[in-house]
UniProtKB/TrEMBL annotation, chain B:
Species per Swiss-Prot/TrEMBL record: Cohnella kolymensis
Span of domain LUD: 62-240
SUPFAM superfamilies noted in UniProt: NagB/RpiA/CoA transferase-like
Superkingdom: Bacteria
Lineage, uppermost ranks: Bacteria, Bacillati, Bacillota, Bacilli, Bacillales
Protein name, per record: LUD domain-containing protein
Length: 507, 241
């Protein structure tokens, strides 16, 4: 099993170097993440009581995962009662095998797919192609990167790294004529091209944002309408679903529907939210005749019962932590090398692979500033998890203590390019935040060295301030609307330290 | 469906049931406790309490729905009755040189008698015979006409439910979607609509429940907003009453 694309010889640092050379990528990522991030902040503010909603979202996710055997079982029973063929797959290979068997049974030529991180995780397109089945991504961004033979670089905007000229070039090859680099014309071409595919395809394949246990329904959020196409037009539907996607009821879905679109793009609701309950009814004139749901573990259950990582299963894949992360914003998704990028990818990829040694350099590509946690609509403490990962690496005897302690990997990435020197200082500052946070300090038992770790005594104090204005502002801004609980924890810790007077960090 | 395929599905189903038990036992083991087989008490069900009682007046619901739907790129009109709906569809058809209209098979829409209003236009009624390839019909239609089952003002969304007489593709494949929205169907919150699905239970839900909040859109090319990528690029909500 391999949940990732990484080759052993290519480190985060090398991939980041590549990313940093690409000026467009850098700007596009910054611009897009900024747009999404500010959209999210506006949406959260307009909605009001955001902290209460976050807390409610967290509680629902915690409750569901804590009783996952009950709810998942209920979902499977109900989906089956609705006429769905439910399958369980422990590994990626099993999930792939089941999908291929269905495709073979159906003598499928073409599968149309709507965006699904799980199928990316399984490398399902590749597997389908190996048995001669064409797999067509139908989300505009996914279609573009599929033509380019690449992988998504952002959960929400997968083709964030392509400019319109590159896109026009790719689509012109498909069209057999030169298309102008005009968004409306390019999108119009894709609409026509994919319309044909939808109507021809034998199988529609989707992921699943949420699955409602009480009624056995699966729910999809999207803006383009391609997920509706995929679940309505072909005769057979296959849905691949991570085993943790469950919510108990439709009432709980209201909370997720409140958090997910606002956190992902700042929308009040995505253009389409679809709840699919079983295949078409006998007397219906559209909808799939046969519907399969494949419930996938593929490393997820490794987090169950692990006090440090179980909350990873609460993730609703909104991408807000990517948009908030200063490191992601500057190196882009491909530098992470796995299916999932950004802070969530940095933790999820090694967790799913249960391979700390291979992946720890991703954990280092983070400033530990806590912006990911602040952004997360279900309050997953990703920044703490990054520290646990580093600690586990040390415990497993990988790497030097210095690496585990600090920003070495991250600093090296950033120091490589002159203009990124400021990041080095930011990194140090990021560490300081962690040290300041009393809550984390207490949990850091095995890493005792941490709280006495001196912050770059050789750097002059003002160096941070004149470091990198944007980043500074970003993080400071992030701090302003910080969760009061965390803020008071931090303030308490700083106060305590001031009383002890043994450290004198700048604020 | 051929017998061989049926047998295979039955075989897979039997396997899946065995696997299901192992899967759930594995989860319980990892969680360090016995299997949970009784419904656990769920103290955090649904939205926070303050939200559950939040209500707008009808006038506010209309205004908020209109604002939200418009800001997502949709069009909203407030019409007095179905006669005005008929007039609107007739005028729009002429304006846009419409050739095909597909509509759901509902009494309110029968009553519009679009056939006489638009003699030049081919009007198809969803699933009104079994010979037609209905999906293809929806795909070539210029207008899809539906009656919304609900709307949520807070998010600016209409809800359409599928049935024998209400195709999922009618609100998806045509170039323009026209949704008639009886004013009393506009709720304040999403949760008011979702509650009905919990009450109904799986056996009584339609195969497709679709919330639609404006025209199909994408920002995948250089963040440039594109309308009508796969679904309808023009969406009208006609509030009636
Ligand atoms: S970790 Fe939180 S912020 Fe990141 S994708 Fe998951 S839910 Fe969204």
């Amino acid at each position: 099993m391999s949940g990732t694309d990484i080759s052993a010889s290519s480190t985060v640092k090398e991939r980041a170097d590549l990313a940093l050379n690409n000026e467009f990528l850098r700007q596009a990522v910054r611009f897009t993440t900024e747009r999404l991030r500010s959209g999210k902040m506006t949406a959260a503010e307009q909605h009001g009581n955001w902290e209460e909603w976050r807390e409610r979202g967290r509680q629902i996710r915690l409750h569901t995962i804590a009783h996952l055997d009950y709810y998942l079982n209920l979902f499977a029973d109900n989906a089956r009662a609705n006429g769905v063929h439910v399958h369980f797959a422990d590994t990626a290979q099993e999930a792939v095998n089941i999908s291929l068997q269905i495709a073979e049974r159906k003598k499928a030529h073409t599968v149309v797919k709507s965006k699904s991180m799980v199928t990316e995780e399984l490398h399902l397109n590749h597997a389908l192609e190996s048995i001669g089945v064409e797999a067509v991504e139908t989300d505009l961004g996914e279609y573009i990167i599929q033509l380019a033979g690449e992988t998504p670089s952002h959960i929400i905007i997968p083709a964030i790294h392509k400019n319109r000229y590159q896109i026009a070039e790719l689509l012109s090859v498909e069209a057999g004529e030169t298309l102008p680099a005009d968004t409306a014309i390019l999108a119009g071409f894709v609409r026509r091209k994919l319309r044909q595919k939808f109507l021809e395809a034998d199988i529609g394949m989707t992921g699943c944002n949420f699955a409602v246990a009480e009624t056995g329904s699966m729910v999809l959020f999207e803006n383009e309408g391609n997920a509706r196409m995929v679940t309505t037009v072909p005769k057979t539907q296959i849905t691949l679903m991570g085993m943790e996607r469950i919510v108990p009821t439709w009432a709980d879905l209201e909370v997720m529907a409140t958090l997910l679109p606002r956190s992902a793009t700042g929308q009040k609701l995505t253009v389409y939210m679809s709840g699919i309950t079983g295949p078409r009814r006998e007397e219906d004139a559209d909808g799939p005749e046969e519907m399969h749901i494949i419930i996938v573990d593929n490393g997820r259950s490794l987090q169950l019962g692990d006090p440090e990582f179980q909350e990873l299963l609460n993730c609703i894949r909104c991408g807000a932590c990517l948009n908030a992360c200063p490191v992601y914003r500057h190196i882009g998704g491909h530098a992470y090398g796995g299916t999932y990028s950004g802070p969530i990818g940095a933790v999820l990829t090694p967790a799913l692979n249960k391979n700390v040694a291979e992946w720890d350099d991703i954990a280092n590509a983070s400033s530990l500033c806590g912006a990911c946690y602040e952004a997360c609509p279900v309050k997953i403490p990703l920044h703490e998890m990054l520290i646990y990962l580093r600690r586990r690496k040390v415990e497993n005897g990988h790497g030097s203590k210095l690496e585990s302690l600090g920003m070495k990997g991250f600093a090296a990435v950033m120091a490589k390019s002159g203009r990124f020197n400021g990041m080095l200082k930011l990194g140090k500052w990021g560490q300081k935040l962690v040290v300041r946070d009393g809550g984390i300090k207490v949990k850091l038992g095995p890493l005792k060295g941490w709280n006495s770790y001196r912050i770059a005594p050789s750097l002059p104090k003002k160096s941070f301030r004149d470091g990198w204005r944007t980043l500074e502002e970003e993080i400071r801004h992030g701090l302003k609307d910080m969760d009061p609980a965390v803020k008071s924890r931090m303030e308490a810790a700083i106060k305590k330290r001031a009383e002890g007077a043994s450290h004198s960090h700048e604020r | 469906m051929n017998d061989e395929h049926k047998d295979w599905l039955a075989y897979m189903d039997a396997q899946s049931r065995d696997k299901q038990m192992l899967f759930m036992n594995g989860i319980a083991r990892k969680l360090n406790r016995p299997r949970v087989t009784e419904p656990p008490s769920h103290p955090f069900r649904g939205a926070p309490d303050f939200w559950q009682t939040f209500q707008w007046t009808e006038q506010e619901r209309i205004e908020k729905f209109t604002d939200n739907f418009r800001s997502a790129g949709g069009h909203v009109l407030r019409l007095a009755d179905m006669a005005e709906v008929r007039q609107f569809i007739t005028d729009k058809s002429a304006e846009m040189s419409v050739k095909y209209v597909i509509r759901q098979n509902e009494p309110e829409l029968d009553a519009l008698n679009l056939e006489s209003a638009l003699p030049e236009v081919k009007i198809l009624v969803w699933n009104s015979n079994s010979e037609q390839h209905w999906k293809a019909c929806a795909a070539e239609a210029d207008f899809g006409v539906v009656v919304a089952d609900y709307a949520a003002a807070y998010t600016g969304s209409i809800t359409v439910l599928s049935s024998k007489d209400k195709g999922r593709t009618v609100s998806l494949l045509p170039t323009v979607l026209i949704a008639i929205l009886p004013v009393e169907r506009i709720k304040t919150r999403l949760g008011e609509i979702l509650a009905d699905f919990d009450d109904a239970g799986g056996a009584h839900l339609p195969a497709g429940i679709h919330f639609i909040s404006g025209p199909s859109r994408s920002a995948d090319i250089e963040n440039d907003l594109t309308i009508g990528v796969h679904g309808p690029g023009v969406v009208y909500a006609l509030i009636v009453g």
